[in-house]
């Protein structure tokens, strides 16, 4: 599965959140429920290793939305733009 994620969403891809995803760590909405559906960002990593060992991350796609906000997402929650 991890290799498919890397092929579908290579580092540098521009993506949009297509599903409703509630987060609590947005810099402007700390400790409040905030839906990031519709936000666009850039894939900065696909997590498949940790300390040189393979892992099966639940949220393998790491997306940068702006300078201060980044999030780990599932492949099913995003789409290429």
Task: Outline the secondary-structure elements.
Elements: H1 2-8, E1 14-17, E2 22-23, E3 34-35, E4 40-46, E5 49-50, E6 53-54, E7 61-64, E8 70-73, E9 78-80
Task: Tell me about this structure.
- By secondary structure, the chain is mostly beta strands.
- The protein has one domain (2-80): SH3 type barrels, CATH 2.30.30.
- It is 9% helix and 37% strand.
- The strands form 3 sheets. Strands 8-7-4-1-9 form a 5-stranded antiparallel beta sheet. Strands 2-3 form a two-stranded antiparallel sheet.
- A hairpin with a 2-residue loop joins strand 5 (49-50) and strand 6.
- The longest helix is centred in the first third of the chain and has 7 residues, at 2-8.
- The radius of gyration is 13 Å and the shape is globular.
- The chain starts with a helix and ends with a strand.
Provide a brief overview of the structure:
This protein is mainly beta. It is built from one helix and nine strands, in the order αβββββββββ.
* Secondary structure: number of strands: 9
- Number of DSSP helical runs: 1
Total number of distinct structural domains: 1
- Secondary-structure element pattern, one letter each: HEEEEEEEEE
Unreliable stretches covering 5 or more consecutive residues? none
Beta-strand content bin? 35-45%
> Whole-number average pLDDT?
91
End-to-end Cα distance: 22 Å
Residue share in helix: under 10%
From the spread of the alpha carbons, the general shape counts as globular
- What is the radius of gyration computed over CA atoms, rounded to a whole number of angstroms? 13 Å
Q: Characterize the largest beta sheet: strand count, sense, and whether it forms a barrel.
A: 5 strands, antiparallel
- Which class in CATH terms? Mainly Beta
Secondary structure category = mainly beta
CATH architectural type: Roll
Give the spatial strand order of the biggest sheet.
Answer: 8-7-4-1-9
Q: Quote the CATH topology.
A: SH3 type barrels
């Amino acid at each position: 599965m991890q290799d498919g994620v890397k092929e579908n969403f290579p580092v540098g891809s521009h993506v949009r959140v297509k599903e409703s995803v509630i987060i609590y760590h947005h810099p402007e909405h700390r400790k409040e429920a905030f839906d990031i559906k519709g936000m666009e960002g850039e894939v900065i990593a696909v997590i498949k290793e940790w300390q040189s060992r393979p892992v099966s991350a639940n949220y393998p796609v790491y997306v940068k939305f702006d300078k201060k906000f980044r999030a780990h997402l599932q492949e099913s929650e995003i789409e290429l733009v």
